[in-house]
Amino acid sequence: MTTDNAPGTYDLEAGRERTQPVALTVNGVEHRLDIPGRRLLSDALRHDLGLTGTHVGCEHGVCGACTVLLDGQPVRSCLIFAATVQGREITTVEGIGDDPEHPSPVQQAFIDSHALQCGFCTPGFITTIEAFLAENPDPSREEAREAISGNLCRCTGYQNIVTAVCRAAELKRAAGRATAGCAGCPGSGTAAGEEQP
Amino acid sequence: MKPAPLTCHSPTTLDEAVRLLHDLGPEAKVIAGGQSLVPVLNMRLATPAHLVDITGLPGLDEIRVSAEAVEVGALVTHRRLEQDDAAHAALPLLRQALVNVAHPAIRNRGTTVGSLAHADPNGEMPMILALTGGSVTAASVRGERTITASELFVGPMETVLEPDEILVSARFGRFAEGTRTAFTELTRRSGDYALAGAALALQVSDGQLRTARMGFVSVTELPDALDLTELVAGRPASTSADIAEAVVERVTEHIAPESDIHATADYRRHLTGVLARRLLTELTADIPARGAA
Amino acid sequence: MTTRMFGQRIKRREDPRLVTGNGRYVDDLGTGALEAAFVRSPHAHARILDIDVSGALDVPGVVAVWTYEDLVGKLAEPLPMLLPHPAIEAPVTGHVLAKDEVNHVGEAIVMVIADDRYLAEDAASRIEVEYEFRDAVVGIEAARDGAALVHEEAPGNIAAHLVQEVGDAPGRIASAAHVLELDLDIERSASMPMEGKGVLARWNREDGSLRVHSSTQTSTGVRAALAARLDLPLNKVDVITPDVGGGFGVKINHPWPEELALGAAAKVLEREVKWTEDRREHFISSAHERQQLQRVRVGFDDDGRIAGLDVQFWHDNGAYLPYGVIVPLNTSTHILGPYDLPDYRVEYYSLYTNTVIVTPYRGAGRPQAAYLMERTMDAVADYLGRDRTEVRRRNFVREFPHPIGLTMQDGREGIYDSGDYDTSLDKLKALVGWDDFADYRREAEAAGRRVGLGIGCYVESTGAGPYEGGHIEIETTGRVNVATGLTSQGQAHQTVLAQIVADELGVPIEMVSVTTGDTRKMGYSVGTWGSRGAVMSGNAVHLTAKKVKQKALAVAGRSLEVDPADLEIVDGIVRVKGDPKAQMPLAMVSVLSNPLRYAFDDTARAATQFAGKQDETKPPIAESDKPGLEDSDFYSPVRSTFASGMHAAIVETDPETADIRILRYCVVHDCGPMINPMVVEGQVHGGVAQGVGGALYEKMAYDSSGQLLNASFMDFLMPFAAEVPEIETDHLETPSPLNPLGIKGAGEAGTIPVSAVIASAVEDAEGFPITRMPISPPELWELRRRHDAGEWPSLRRG
User: Residues in domain 2Fe-2S ferredoxin-type (chain A) (predicted)?
Assistant: First the structure.
């Protein structure tokens, strides 16, 4: 099945792979890279730009750890070749907030709600939730759960991430007005059963 | 899991793109959203030497609604089509099906036309194309041609497209007036491929069933549609429960499910029957008996 | 007054870094390092006849291609048998790179090192291996049958065989009023952390030292293995565990072939080398767990009091046995659960198969034990027509300590140290509404819905030894640096250990920082496994903090000229009880604890030779003392402490599609006093979610030739948020008498009973026995068909 197509892409004299120029706009900064055509966006972000907040969990588009925003919409950076998103605006978790002293509302909500344990999947959730709340600033708990149902987390059981989505909405709204509430969202640690008999 | 070496080409006109494809030969593949292709490349199950990225081509990102059809350009993502209100008004089945395609992050990048080219009978949209009596338009150095859904799909993940052709648009046919539609599927997890899925387009007037067409996910070899009109035509909607048995029988005869690690063929057949019955019930539940209201 | 931190819902101190993309996992380190890829066997069982690497050498950027022939010295020996046990009859372990045969799909054969992973994979794909095929042994039946062998040296494919017996189970069963037999089956899942394994190795030519970063659950273990196999002095090897993206057991096995191979490559190539396991590799070359076939004979009286329990089970340990019999041993020693069963016999066989190795996955044999016992309890209750909770209650242990007469995984007898199972059950019944369920079911049935209620109870030995240590130093800034040797994969050690130290030292928690899993900071440690982190390192840092506090009070007492017994530390200030004016910041105590000749700043000046008055009759450092406000201590328990819990779930099964939905999931959990209830609940949530995966979604689908058919997240169905229910929790806090903090482990608890609970609930909904887990809608539908055809029995309850 594998065909030997290397000769065209290896520069054997130079002892390396051929590259092509790729211009990427990441977190508002334009970068000019010289990278092979097969470089995945996830690898370009992590290895070429040093933005290691974007994590790689499966490289087949299921786990969501590598989720970044492409023109504001969540996408899997492991399923995109860097060369195919030139001129688009890419936002990584660092673009949402890279200062531990001053986390963004979604990031703060994760801290408040104990919505992470090992933290590996977290950046993919944060980018996903950032975009979701832009579309739905006042989600119900069920909507929050649905919104994160395309990302895998192996540590938390998701419950506190659902809480964090509502908490983030609350924090974002609180930034705009004095009081806010999130119907149906209990505080951290307690739980609301669905369809309690 | 890194793709094999390849060269990524980014043409800026359709002419350039089809010329590239023609010149590069079968070692080149078209990539748009890449949501089905890139996993395969990452696992090195396919190793094309060249990718022709069509995301930079102008004019392929439009959704056009006409009296007969919803026409979707090759660069329209699932998500855009799903959220397009005009398309939804014209053909609600599109949104009904699209919300079941993987997860939003995949729909944000994956294109509807791309999923047609992928021709996966486990995918929702090839079936929808078949069910709507739709067609696609393919471009190559030889010009453009239109291919109907029934011609397009020739095997699982197999189409009549030539290696140097690019699908530039798809045309989903609108249903006759009075047609109501529904889509349902059962997945193991949210966003997974369906164990089985089905969609029904049921034309009703004056409390009577007129025509019916049903399409299936994950239980047929090819994305296709089953015409059930002869079973329903002229029957009062209120008697749908009576004809359900015949519909289920016809459906289970038609489909050809296979066993895999997720479900046996027997289960899929049973499930498809259940889904067919539920669709029929769902689409007739609110129809008053003839003469009323 | 400093608030006591123990017991508070302190927000995690790890989080600000992790949520802002500032976590540092192995693959985030080593920019510019060479990268490794491996040629792995595509066959389950074969001899290797020839390896042709020539094609790989044409790929640019390839630096090294190693086969077994390139391994020198001890590196070429079989990987260690980490946990010897008398039950092991045929210990077989693999090699760093396959020697002359492969025993599972995924076994590493060739290592390629290149400029980057893309090129390394290119080269690996061009290496040709010629095989001579052998029959693959897949599944317990095939292994038990023994017609084909995985290893010639293991006849009958038996790796280990053990009988444990207390009392006279066969005799008591023979004379019991009722006897039941059950055959049970539980399948394979896997830890499946979001981050796979990873190794970054750097050789320092100048001083002949090796530094390895590994995504491991034991940095000290990896260090010792590297030193031994690379023949390096231990003090020339350091292993650092950076942020780890989840472990759940799979990262406790060590040394993984890649850890040794990368360490060796760094040394030989004198370059920094890195390996980042990809998802497919993780599926086929890490470890799985759970698969067992179980046979139960139970005798009991009319009230459901169990007279005797006789168990046999067959455990699939995969291709090799590096981690010994820990998993089946945990099963055999946890079957008794919260029940007082003085007559118990268990016999198990641990069997080789041509599949990925089996090492602990969260619960580590205990989920299988709970499954066996709880399925049995439900069967007894159904047979007698009694309420399932009443039969359980009839058998509870009520007196502590309760010795069970079995030797546990730590080589010591299992003795339940404390617990309150009656109260747990009362709380659980109240939480789930056990006594109201019949009404709920009636209402549901009237609406055409099918629902069921299930229960599962368990105990868990936690906090096993041998030991963990703590090191604490208080800097002259007042900053408190705490180190413990075990590693962290999300358990909030940096928070909960800081809580413990802050309490004991009387300092604000903000002043405390905790380092884990870095052999440069703490060379003595065992690792993070078996729900032991908080118990072991928690008590270790607690004891260490006590020592450091005593030292601080002694130094401050000398300076303030008061009896140390009259001193206390509050908010980082050492002061005389009842006389707040006589005080000194801990930072100053730190300065004074280190007599100086040289003043490098104003603070240090206070400790120099001409600062203040001195007792010239005594040396600056007392004979029994050491400079610096720092010390170490270790906690080493006599035996494990037993946590416990009970879960209940309400499920709904679709009468037509057989789809299974969990409507409610309730947990009553007792891990003793909780250091941080928020963290404990997080552990429970995550544990239950993994349990739900194992009960309804996840299994390793091997075909008969040993190919893993679902080695991806597409087909291995780890649950998303939509599949995991909201979890309702209640707690008991029964202290352990075994350790100073009175705490018990919590990490694995949530996972342990879930398959038992869901089986119980589905069975209750369907009215026929569920004996095989996990269960999917197609499998449930098939059972219904067999039941309707009279091929599968009904429950007796009718």
Answer: 20-96
Architecture in CATH of B63-173: 2-Layer Sandwich (3.30)
d(CA B191, CA A64) in angstroms, rounded, equals 13
Q: Which of helix, strand or coil describes residue C645? A: strand
Q: What is residue C2's predicted lDDT score, i.e. its pLDDT?
A: 59
What are the tokens at A23?
A: 């211009």
Round to whole Å and give the CA distance between C148 and C157.
8
- 3-class secondary-structure state, position C113: strand
C667: helix, strand or coil:
strand
Say which of A46, A191, A192 has its CB closest to residue C729: A191
Given an 8 Å threshold on Cβ–Cβ distance, is B1 in contact with C278? yes
Other C-beta atoms closer than 10 Å to the C-beta of B19 total: 16
Q: Which two tokens stand for residue A113?
A: 């709600």
CA distance A22 to C621: 64
Q: The CATH number of C32-134+197-244+251-285 is which of 3.90.1170.50, 3.90.1210.10, 4.10.520.10, 3.40.50.300?
A: 3.90.1170.50
pTM: predicted TM-score of the whole model, two decimal places: 0.96
Q: Tell me the Ramachandran region of residue B96: left when phi exceeds 0, alpha when psi lies from -120 to 50, beta otherwise.
A: alpha
What is the pairing mode between strands C273-276 and C292-300?
unpaired
Do A61 and B1 lie within an 8 Å CB cutoff?
no
**Which residue is it, tokens 């590693």?**
C487
Lookup: tokens for B92: 């609600």
Amino acid at residue number C250: V
Q: Name the residue facing C722 among B190, B262, B274 (closest C-beta).
A: B190
For A18-96, the fitting CATH number among 3.40.309.10, 3.40.50.300, 1.20.1740.10, 3.10.20.30 is 3.10.20.30
CB-based burial, C536-548: b 16+ in 10 Å, e otherwise: bbbbbbbbbbbbb
Rounded distance between C-alpha atoms, residue C8 and residue C11, angstroms? 9
CA nearest to C713 within chain B: B192
What are the pLDDT digits (tens) for B137-185? Answer: 999 999 999 999 999 999 999 999 999 999 999 999 999 999 999 999 9
Render pLDDT for B220-272 as a digit per residue (tens, 0 to 9).
999 989 999 999 999 998 888 889 999 999 999 999 999 999 999 999 999 99
pLDDT over threshold 70, residue B290: no
Is residue C540 a contact partner of residue C233, using CB atoms and an 8 Å limit? no
- Exposed / middle / buried, residue A32 (Cβ in 10 Å: 0-12, 13-18, 19+): exposed
Residue C515 is given by DSSP the state E
Residues in chain A closer than 8 A to B6 (CB atoms): 5, 9, 37-38
Same CATH fold assignment for domains C370-463+639-788 and C465-635: yes
Is 0.85 exceeded by the ipTM? yes
Please list, in sequence order, all residues whose beta carbon lies within 8 angstroms of the beta carbon of residue C411, skipping any fewer than 6 positions away. none
User: How many residues in total does chain C contain?
Assistant: 798
Q: Could you tell me which of B75, B28, B79 has the C-alpha nearest to residue B54?
A: B75
Q: Which run of H or of E encompasses B143?
A: strand B143-148
* Average pLDDT of the segment spanning C339-347: 98
C 728-767 residues inside an 8 A Cβ radius of A: 728-729, 750
> C-alpha dihedral over C674, C679, C681, C683, to 10 degrees?
-110
Q: How far apart are CA C535 and CA C542, in angstroms?
A: 10
DSSP per residue, B181-200: EEEEEEESSTTSPEEEEEEE
Angle between helices C754-766 and C777-788 (to 10 degrees): 40
The values of phi and psi at residue C448, to 5°, are 80, 15
User: Is the Cβ–Cβ distance between C75 and C111 less than 8 Å?
Assistant: no
Q: How far apart are CA C400 and CA C420, in angstroms?
A: 9
The separation between the first and the last C-alpha atoms of chain B, rounded to the nearest angstrom, is: 62
